Amino acid sequence: MNSELTLYGYWRSSAAYRVRIALNLKGLAYRQEPVHLVKDGGQQHQAAYRELNPQGLLPLLVDSGNAGGELRIAQSLAILEYLEEVFPVPALLPADPAQRALVRSLAMHIACDVHPLNNLRVLQYLKTELGVADEAKDAWYRHWITLGLGAVEKGLEAFGSKLSLGSRPGYLEACLVPQVYNARRFDCDLSSYPRILDIAARCDALEAFRNAAPEAQPDAQ
Amino acid sequence: MNSELTLYGYWRSSAAYRVRIALNLKGLAYRQEPVHLVKDGGQQHQAAYRELNPQGLLPLLVDSGNAGGELRIAQSLAILEYLEEVFPVPALLPADPAQRALVRSLAMHIACDVHPLNNLRVLQYLKTELGVADEAKDAWYRHWITLGLGAVEKGLEAFGSKLSLGSRPGYLEACLVPQVYNARRFDCDLSSYPRILDIAARCDALEAFRNAAPEAQPDAQ
Asked: Keyword Isomerase, does the record have it (chains A, B) (predicted)?
């Protein structure tokens, strides 16, 4: 497969962080195009970027080696599914449909019901449009993380003390580790989630995750 | 495949509506277990349901015919992916990975960046914890729908005047039609989205969609 991959992201974007992990786990080379979420009123709102991605969010993966013409994929999980289909080895998902469903269920709980509520544009709306004070905004942030990680911790029981691919991390950990990063950044108490903390520690020791970390990115400040 | 499917849902739950459409498109029989989102303080919060689904959200699909033991899948898109893998015909997704990526990108924009912000628990938090007035809450609701549907309308250009599977609807329409239903329920102006309106009208004429509609469910009020 002749692919040339470019990732439009931002060092602290949790969803871009997921894709960096997935690309690294698959050993795929990619070029980075930083899109600054705050500078210039948010570069993701500028015409040049919205032309590429009308959703106006990060990340965006561009595959200029796609046979049918340049392919632009928005949405981190749509990108993960694409990478899994086009570059199947090493796999990010288990082979068994039931196990795949459990992995996607937990990953999507993070990607659908935790992260979007704490996305920058939502926090900005709370502050600017609804006049929510910083303290209440931080409580909102922690509320959704606490609810979400509690459910994920419970769901992880099905994996015993293993990673989602046995001895290897994949799709699930690519979503979980960036969420843990965000939780720590906002001083959430994670002591009730020993399974999550164990997984995060094991992943953070791996090169694929260390190289995907926000602070390791070229646009980190 | 010896499957016995039970869907825990609620007639007006947009995410449960997606799964009903998918099950109907695949011609799969299923039993419904209504979980009332308001009665009894929200039956999704009760211990009996949380034991089945620690995420405490709808829908939940239980497959009691799964070879490895009863399988419980939370998250509507994880359910759609499972159904696609276990009951591949008729397909909900195109065969080509690039086309699949475009479908998932639009569907996930709805499922990740529009719907979760307008979920009942979020509206309740805005009102109860943040003291947001009804008018501002409705503006919030319409704001995220307007942003999201605008991006989807633009993304639909890639499909020309076709449905996501050419002459047939699938994964994309299963996410789009329930979102249009919600938008109408909250009096959003949809006149700027002719492609979306066309798709919704074509889908609403099909039995699989009509039988999945909120008002057609046994627990509709």
From this structure: yes
Q: Which positions of chain A have pLDDT values less than 50?
A: none
ipTM comes to 0.97
* pLDDT, tens digit, 9 for 90 and up, residues B164-186: 999 999 999 999 999 999 999 99
pLDDT band at B2 (very low <50, low <70, confident <90, very high): low
- CB neighbour class for B123 (10 Å; exposed up to 12, middle 13-18, buried from 19): middle
Fold observed for domain B7-90: Glutaredoxin (3.40.30)
The number of beta carbons lying within 10 Å of the beta carbon of residue B198 is: 13
Q: Within chain B, which residue ranges are assigned CATH 1.20.1050.10?
A: 97-209
Domain with CATH 3.40.30.10 in chain A: 5-90
Peptide bond into A194 cis (omega under 30): no
User: A71-74 and A60-63: which strand pairing?
Assistant: antiparallel
Q: Does the CB of B68 have a partner CB in chain A at under 8 Å?
A: yes
State how far residue A113 is from chain B, nearest Cα, in angstroms: 6
Q: Does domain A97-209 have CATH number 1.20.1050.10?
A: yes
Q: Averaged over B115-126, what is the pLDDT?
A: 94
B86 Cβ under 8 Å from any chain A Cβ: yes
Q: Does B27 touch chain A (CB under 8 A)?
A: no
